[in-house]
């Protein structure tokens, strides 16, 4: 009978060509906490405990899936984001820590307001942005849109799980002129597709094989396509004192800022994440 520590060594040995050792340890901890229902505070003590054959088998199955490139979040079908838990599938992006920083920025800037604020999240995916904003800005009315009906089905589940009331719409934002009427928003936020096909060649297989390409990639000759259309949408549907927030491609921060200035935004600010990478941009009239 093997201990949990022995199984962890097996994970490290088998996965070292796919991940760094620290990443493997983190992945293993996520799997162990999920399947063995160990409190996080007891994890290190549990490494010396013998495992039942049933637990060995379930961790072995997880290891096989990890070797295929499948992300641990999809194996356990959930991921944490901004203190909440979200269901994830192959129809949704796995929520990233960088996006938490965007959500945190919006909450800090909008929370002082006592009146109801209208928010729209464009390309909502799992709903992590929209739901986290609604949870932390209870005075907000939040609309979340996505072109994928499958992603919206997951987002609706997540809204129920996290006890939030969100209006979901299945919309192609590239056709916004035919969809939206006179709605006005205090906050427009989007984490749109922004990775070029050239950049895809350098990405990890677990992203390329298991996350939705429509939510990730844009053509090399139109890397700012969604920023262009969403900025045009904002020109008509952002309130006079409202704010447009984007997560951006770090390699195109200057170009994105220039696009927004050319569109007519007068206050445009590029913001860096905790790793000092240009990751967010906000714009106002």
UniProtKB/TrEMBL annotation:
The Enzyme Commission number assigned here is: 2.1.1.297
> What job does the chain carry out?
Methylates the class 1 translation termination release factors RF1/PrfA and RF2/PrfB on the glutamine residue of the universally conserved GGQ motif.
Which residues are involved in binding substrate? Answer: 191-194
Q: Which GO terms describe its biological process?
A: methylation
Q: Which Gene3D superfamilies does the record associate with it?
A: DNA helicase RuvA subunit, C-terminal domain (1.10.8.10), Vaccinia Virus protein VP39 (3.40.50.150)
Please give the name of this protein. Answer: Release factor glutamine methyltransferase
List the Gene Ontology MF annotations in alphabetical order.
Answer: methyltransferase activity
What is this enzyme's catalytic activity, as reactions?
L-glutaminyl-[peptide chain release factor] + S-adenosyl-L-methionine = N(5)-methyl-L-glutaminyl-[peptide chain release factor] + S-adenosyl-L-homocysteine + H(+)
State one Pfam family annotation: MTS
Organism per entry: Sphingobacterium kyonggiense
List keywords of the entry alphabetically.
Methyltransferase, S-adenosyl-L-methionine, Transferase
- Provide the top EC class: transferase
Checking CDD domains in the record gives: AdoMet_MTases (cd02440)
Binding locations of S-adenosyl-L-methionine: 123-127, 146, 191
Domain of life according to the entry: Bacteria
Instruction: Give every Methyltransferase small domain span.
Output: 112-202
Which protein family is it in? Belongs to the protein N5-glutamine methyltransferase family. PrmC subfamily.
